[in-house]
Amino acid sequence: MTPPPTLSFQLATISQQDEWDRYVSTHEQATAYHKFAWLLAVKNAYGHAISGVIARETQTNEVVGVFPAILMKTPIIGRQLCSLPYCDVGYPVADSSEVVSEMQRFLESQQIKHNSQNFEIRDVAETPSEKTHLQHKKVRMLLPLPQSSEVLLASFKSKLRSQVRKAEKNGLEVKLGCSQQLVADFYGVYTRNMRDLGSPVHAKKWFEQIVEAYADSSIISVIYKGDTPIGAGLVIKNGKHASIPWASTLREFNPLAPNMMLYWSLLAHCADSGITEFDFGRSTFEEGTYRFKKQWGATPQLLNWKKLDKNNQYVREKEHNQAPSKLRPLIENIWRKLPLGLTITTGSVIRPYISL
């Protein structure tokens, strides 16, 4: 009987980026967030430590699994281990469930070593066939893409196709790329939209580092009314998978349908670039953003975020999914009324320590 392979585990370093990315580029469960670029952007933008694990089969030295993670040092709260911050997913990918279990045990030992207060794993779960079980749950919306934008457009209902064309008829234009000007235009739309939503923003350097780390595996789309940027989105890619972490439009221009042109431009780009799955990101089942993503044909996958305390015990669900603070609506309302420049400055200071 052949003995089971001997495994070795270590915290990944920047020198191992190429072999890390070779592994995740071919793993069917890996997302764009699993690329080493996400870890690198977090480190370079915000200074948090890379704590991703790379697993090898000892005899061959072949990579058999990776577990992306970041050790965040947060004022007052202390250290927190997160897989992964600032996005929806960061679960481990490996050749087997045994490798996954061993990598998690390795990270749990790191949690104790660094006195981390908790360890959060942003995983996914099998989506229940009975949709009533999804009520009030967080899901990510996934859309299979055909081999070309032409085929994709033909698959849409006539109403959706007319909405896509509406933006063009209203005189809107789109530019795609990763130039510094597009990053700046994206950031201008993003910061105004987040202020209007009452939410703190990332620093501009965060997006600059994402574009630098992902390079050709990233794309920005900006929608213009004349010379004014009114909509923008950022997509990152890994193999045949693409995700859109951020998309924004200026609400006063929404009657012109910039959001339809924005998403279509990115979906078309991905379909024509060999992407076969597009991740629209997180939504609450049957709420507004869910319905917007559903109209494109996307279907839900249940998110399963888990948290371990400093004793490596899972936090009970009723503790992990606490009701929102009653102060939140008040704080959001105050934030919306602040000058834009102040929200950017303040948000850039506090956002590195908010893992959502």
Description of the molecule:
The chain has two domains: 7-123, Gcn5-related N-acetyltransferase (GNAT) (Aminopeptidase); 146-275 and 333-353, Aminopeptidase, CATH 3.40.630.30. Helices cover 37% and strands 28% of the residues. It has helices spanning 17-26, 36-46, 97-113, 149-155, 158-169, 180-197, 204-214, 258-272, 288-294, 317-320, 328-336, 340-350, and strands at residues 7-11, 49-50, 53-57, 62-67, 70-74, 78-83, 93-94, 118-124, 138-144, 172-177, 218-225, 228-238, 241-249, 277-284, 299-309. Helix 4 packs across helix 8 (258-272).
CATH superfamily of the largest domain: Gcn5-related N-acetyltransferase (GNAT)
Number of strands: 15
CATH structural architecture of the largest domain:
3-Layer(aba) Sandwich
Spatially, the strands of the biggest sheet line up as: 2-5-6-8-15-9-14-13-12-11-10
Query: What is the number of helical segments per DSSP (H or I, 4+ residues)?
Result: 12
Short synopsis of the structure:
With 356 residues, this protein is an alpha+beta fold.
Main attributes of the structure:
356 residues, Aminopeptidase, 2 domains, 11-stranded mixed β-sheet, 4-stranded antiparallel β-sheet, 12 helices, 15 strands
Describe the protein's topology.
Blueprint: E1 7-11, H1 17-26, H2 36-46, E2 49-50, E3 53-57, E4 62-67, E5 70-74, E6 78-83, E7 93-94, H3 97-113, E8 118-124, E9 138-144, H4 149-155, H5 158-169, E10 172-177, H6 180-197, H7 204-214, E11 218-225, E12 228-238, E13 241-249, H8 258-272, E14 277-284, H9 288-294, E15 299-309, H10 317-320, H11 328-336, H12 340-350
Parallel strand pairs: 6-8, 13-14
Antiparallel strand pairs: 1-3, 2-5, 3-4, 4-7, 5-6, 8-15, 9-14, 9-15, 10-11, 11-12, 12-13
Helix pairs in contact: 2-7, 4-8, 5-8, 6-7
